[in-house]
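Preliminary data (for renewal application), acetyl coenzyme *A complex.
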Amino acid sequence: MTTQDDIKKGLAGVVADTTAISKVNPDSNSLLYRGYPVQELAANCSFEEVALLLWTGELPEAADLKEFSEFEAAHRELSPELKAVIDALPTDCHPMDVCRTAVSVLGAQDPASEEDSQEANLTKSKKLFAAMPAVVAYDQRRRRGEEIIPPRADLDYCDNFLYMTFGEVPAPEVKKAFQVSMVLYAEHSFNCSTFTARTIASSLSDLHSAITGAIGALKGPLHGGANEAVMETFDEMGIRKDESEQEAEKRAKEWMDDALAQKKKVMGFGHRVYKNGDSRVPTMQDALTDMIKYFGREEMLGLYNGLAKSMDEAKGIKPNLDYPAGPTYHLMGFDTQTFTPLFVAARMTGWTAHVMEQLADNSLIRPLSDYDGPEERHVEK
Ligand code: ACO
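Predicted structure:
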């Protein structure tokens, strides 16, 4: 008989499979991608190098990186058909709906969509990696009524992403912070969206279907949608550009005390696995601080520290990656609703690596449930 102890609600604490892609260690607050600490990768590697590391298991040699970069640059353009599908979507739908739809269309358009060899899946992964920045940039610009900017093959992934979104090659400081965020968001073992992708792949469905499902899972505010929700909190408090850091911090503390008194869940805090702090936060916090200095927006630091200090003092709950990422993207000029699509572009690497790993040693994912509905009964007519 199933006891209450046998039921692992939310699969909390359940080890569902092995993975060689990343190791999350909550005791040491560390995160390794294929053995490398994520902080070292963020400091020393391009996002393209990290993508290849996640897919292949090794950091690339120069020739392999060059070959991939050329492939990526050649696959950035969206087809006229995909642009027409995006254009047909309302400009007030959520950008995550656009990402989900775009990946579905890219799957339908890919002649190798039904091929399931590891080689075919790696190529599909690289194409999705290349196309996502164009989807995200296209959508933000069409919403703003701005002219669409085609990709530039002479720019690397991050420079081109920001160029297509804002029409300018970013300053090196901005590019660096953006690249750090992409690397930190790239992979995090069996989180909700990655497990969704693996579950879909486990039925031997195709890679694009798995990624479409993962995007749906990421959209929720308990997962990727939290980076957007963090900014909504900042907006609710009110961002006052003329406010001093100290005044902003005081106001943020009061806001948090009030929110906690009302038993509100504040997005950007807490984590299912890390209970003493998310390993990615210090690196992302440094990137945020750099952006605050670069844009001269010290009041944002006050709001950021005020909320975090008050939450820590009241409940001992630490920020997760979404907390510093949200305001960083805001300072760069992204619309709040575009934040989670940026997470999609980054996590495309981890998701696709997991789909390939799942398929390399597949077992259909199908847990049991304990029935607690009505006893057997019969139709009376
Ligand atoms: N704000 C206020 N209280 C919180 C928060 C929060 N953000 N997170 C946890 N708590 C409290 C809960 O209210 C609960 O308190 P209680 O025991 O008094 O009822 C306790 O801490 C445990 O919380 P759970 O939700 O049960 O913890 P769980 O491990 O299931 O949840 C989760 C983790 C879903 C991330 C949770 O912390 C949360 O909802 N956070 C906000 C959403 C968020 O930021 N998500 C991003 C995750 S990271 C990422 O996707 C990159």
